[in-house]
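Aim 2, interim progress: modelling of the beta-D-glucopyranose-bound target.
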Amino acid sequence: FQRGEVDVQEKIKELMRQMTIEEKVALTIGQDFWSTNAIARLGIPSINLNDGPHGVRKPISGTDAGIGNSLPATCFPSASAVASSFDVNLMQEMGEALGEESRRLGVDVLLGPGLNIKRTPVCGRNFEYFSEDPVLAGEMATAEVRGIQSRGVGTSVKHFACNNQEYERMSINVEVDERTLREIYLAGFERVVKAAKPWTVMASYNKVNGDYATENEVLLQRILKGEWEFDGVVVSDWGAVNDKDKALAAGMDLEMPGGRPQPEIVALFENGHIPMSALDAAAERVLLMVEKAAAQREEHDFTTASAADVGQKAHTLARRVAGESIVLLKNEENLLPLTSETVQSVAVLGRFAKQPRFQGAGSSQIVPTEVDIPLEELVALADGKMTFEYADGYVDSETIDEAALREAVDLAKKSQAAVIFAGLPDHYESEGYDRKHMSTPPAHNRLIEEVCRVQRNTVVVLMNGSSIVMPWVDAPKAIVEAWLGGQAIGGAIADVLLGRVNPSGKLAETFPVRYEDTPAYLNYPGELGTVRYGEGLFVGYRYYDAKGVRPLFPFGHGLSYTTFAYTKLALSRETMTDVDELEVSVSVRNTGERHGKEAVQVYVRDVESRLVRPVKELKAFGKVELAPGEERTITFTLRDRDFAYFDPAIHDWRIDSGKFEILVGPSSALLPLKATIVLESTKVIPPVFHKMSLVKDFLAHPVAMEAVSAMLPEWMRMNAGADAGDLSFMEAMMMELPLKKAIAFTGGQITEEMLEALISRVNQAG
Ligand code: BGC
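Predicted structure of the complex, ligand included:
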């Protein structure tokens, strides 16, 4: 607040006192598709909430969804691209530009970022999400929110929660265990809510463990508003409220879109169906946001700069972000970058070179201010030193056009190198439905195969919003993942191919060899209205690690035109407790001949864990820029949560004392440096024993061990008979028995009372 915090609180209280039930209800439901209800009598304005997340989509009209019919705005790279930059500063800068553009177009709350976890690669909306990893997703979202909100524009982190597939997204019930929910699906939201205080959180369409997210008391009231102390507004995804009274009671504040008759809602209060306190709570939160937004409008005025200047600046930023997000997947014999010393004639093949795919379909679809054409950008950047000849290669993605194919192959043959533009066509991935498979279209595959047969120097440039399989992976020398890179992707591709930009992106999601290898394969898309997250914690690289399944390209992978050496991993201490911080520093040196950037990744591995844990988990990352020969030391800070897991038995985070390994390197599959820290937890959580606790659990506890081992010989003797020889099998069997079985198996020598006394002694000892 720019005005005094106290003044605003007072004003809100006063307005709440003056409002009628009708007016309070009006505040909790939109006025039309994109704005809140104004209450003119009390001087409460209406504010606008618009998509989001990688550009501003301000529909011309307020009364429809307006997809494809919005004001021109800069289309930045989508989330799967930007996450690959592994660069939170860049993300924040993009957020600032989005905030300024929102302000200029009259948007008060930009509906994004989306940070759902990429549970399955075929989720149609993966292009709008950051990663399969909650730390990377949460950090990126935090940076984007900070950037946007620094310009006085609110954000809506979405879609809360477990909207990890588009298949039946409005009705599917996600069955997910508590630990997986906390560690994988909520962790990113928790990070951004606590660190960046988004103005709103968007409740998703789906059900989570039986209740719609919009009616989910556990998610909204208990976790989000209670535990995480979220003080903003919960806004529904568009049309996600099914039952207004249940939603309000669960902590759903603002229902969107609006426009539905309100008398019936008012009646719900008048006949006591919903407690007035629920309405008051929701109306007050919305009111606070509206007041905040109105104050920010005055504070942040970006309408004075010339639209052309601003547009150019944003386009240049979009090109830089796209360039930093491009991932060089493969580069045999250093084919890239193409330079005029080695290559003078290049065949540019594939329609995407002229009609780039730069964004995904659905609510995030921007009407761009301009679009860079890759072919034209290559020509412009080469400045006459190379020739670029073009052939379509394919006309329609599904059918092979032999003439077009032949023309492309002939052109590739007579050129010194070929660049093929391929990927996923628009209809392959979109909001609203899932992909059917992970393949690129037949016409693209064929073009790659045929061209590689005649031209050794082939580069494949991919335009897709989510991971794909590549049966042709060995054929081209170089593969460049350009993602759905926004309106300036054409320029960014030219920058990377011709070496103006040294690629530094890393995969924020695993690329598998086969769709069948993916973690959720057996538990997707669900049936009879329910999808069970049966793979639990083992999502993304956590799965490939645990199963030893080799991916095509691992999480965190990405090459550069230079090389980096990692040395001198140092920890600030050898032992720590959970209230200490651990500084991890590492030196990275540019050992090649080009200026470059490197995304350094820090993973933590719990060496001996009480509950099953992933082999390792990303806990920190950072990007460093180095001139040839330059070395820098980067320092990361790890805290308690970086070592903790969520223990469903106590419904809380927990750290077990013991050894942890800190692994550092350039990719999840390449971690050359390792150091060990011994952690001593200060929070001792005593186990609670009962009669059905297992013998092995008693034996693992110091006090219980003594008491229980005293009774074991007798118990064993009774079971094994007098002359039983080797009793080691019996010992092993007994470990799995509940203590209570001692009564039955000792013929009553061990009694109920004896066990009760023992258990109470052990539990008291803690
Ligand atoms: C999408 C949201 C979007 C909203 C408004 C919904 O269908 O799921 O992400 O913000 O529409 O367009």
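The first strand starts at residue 49 and ends at 51. The radius of gyration is 29 Å.
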